[in-house]
Amino acid sequence: MKASRKQTAALYMRLSRDDEQRGESTSITNQRRLLQETAAKHGYTKTIEYVDNGYSGTNFNRPGFEKMEQDIVEGKVSCVIVKDESRLGRHQIQVSTYIGIFFPKHDIRFLSVTEGTDSDKGESEYVGMRSFINELYARDASKKVKAAYRAKSLAGEPISRPPYGYKIDPDNKKHWVIDEEAASVVRRIFALALEGKGVDHTANVLSNEMILNPTHYWNERGIGRGGIKFTRSPYAWNNSTVAGILTKQEYCGDVINFKTQAISFYCKTRRETPKEKQMVFYDVHEPIISREDFERVQEKRKENTRVKKSVTGKNMFSGLVKCATCDNNLHFHFSQSNNEITYFNCSHYNSGRRVCTATHYVRVDLLEKVVLGDIRRLVKYGIANEQELVDMLTDQISTARDLKSAERNKRIETLKRRDGELDALISRIYEDSALGRIPTERSYKLMADYESEQQGIVAQLEALEAEAQAFADKVASIDDFMGLIKQQAKVTRLSKALVNRFVEKIVVHHAQPSEGKRLQDIEIHYNYVGTVPLPDTPASPLPKVSLNTRQGVVTEYAPAYAEAS
Asked: What are the structural domains, with CATH classification, of the chain?
């Protein structure tokens, strides 16, 4: 295995869009030929190619580069060969870190062909300078691109891709024309909004009619768009997509430029620009929606928002109800057709982000009956069987503590080992800086990064120690929990205060169909002690909760732990 690694070289090739415009000399084909010749010349009998085509050198989140980095860590290669350092990247600090620290740490030889760099012959004093020059080139190119975009923006040319409902004019790339198939869906969405239908209703209508959502519509036509490439279903429309369409002023025929901007040269994440800094050019392309209808929809949406706030407010369970799949809060809603029907469901399912696979829908009236019934049962059992409950909770907490202990100790060992590695790296930087091997400014940056990582390790170790202490505190808190039970000897109704005193969180599983019914598993986690799976006995029966939630559909409370017991 070691011999195979020693004879294996990584050939890394990168070509950005800007490089493509410079000519054939930087093409992937030419890079490959040059790197293969170099590998053979230096005696490497096996090569692995890593290619990033169309990726900027200022961003190191490139699939080919990340795969090469992973293979280096796993010991699959012993050498990295590039045409020149700019192929590796155009970020001075990160390139210097890879060449000066990451590669040596993993015993990787680094060859830059056109610059004659060979780490086996010692570190070149020009490495830092070349990295700096490469970054200056990237900065200059970035400024030129921004200037070109700004000129186009000020001239009223659309600088973003056309929204769903439009496409680029094949005869004029600076102009949008209506994509009639998608535009008919946009008109339908606005028509439903004008009828007073909410985004929930509209999303359901489009999903039920199996209309392709924008993501899959573009994918089927080979139109490249950013963001998520696939959703849980090609026909799944979510609330945010419908709401986004209803708020796009572009459907009136307008172009809006400077809507977002990159945070910085190093960070390409974009954030929304304040409205006053955006530029609006009116009646540039043919409208899909009249300006009057667009304004009417905006007014109706404002009215609906005001109504919703007055109707819903906050529920006593808000912030306590969690999704069993993604652990996020379930959101409180009311039925638009009947405001008396309120429910919770998982927003991550509706968002179409594929985080959740089901709605985890639960009616509030069902939830109230389950929580009240479980608290009353717990209080009754605790007063009648105090010592049995104390013993059961103590055993439960101790078992959980023992299971967590091995995992926690392994994590602590890993963190302490990394802390030791960072100490060694910091000592090496001090030595290299003192001997003039690396610039002072660079050494300060590297030491700051490592010290920051060490601070994070200290915080994680403290959190793990706190977790261990939390188990001890839970055992000590059993007395407090029993005291709480004794204070509530006669529980007749729920209140927000009572729920907050007793409940830490409520985990809702997605209801499962069974013999024409829906079985709903709900886990109640109590303050101090967590879940309390009491035995189902005649003296302490499980709460029998059944609710006709929809016509012909009955939902029953059926906790999973009851089946286990």
From this structure: 2-149 (3.40.50.1390), 155-310 (3.90.1750.20), 321-380+498-564 (no CATH), 391-490 (1.10.287)
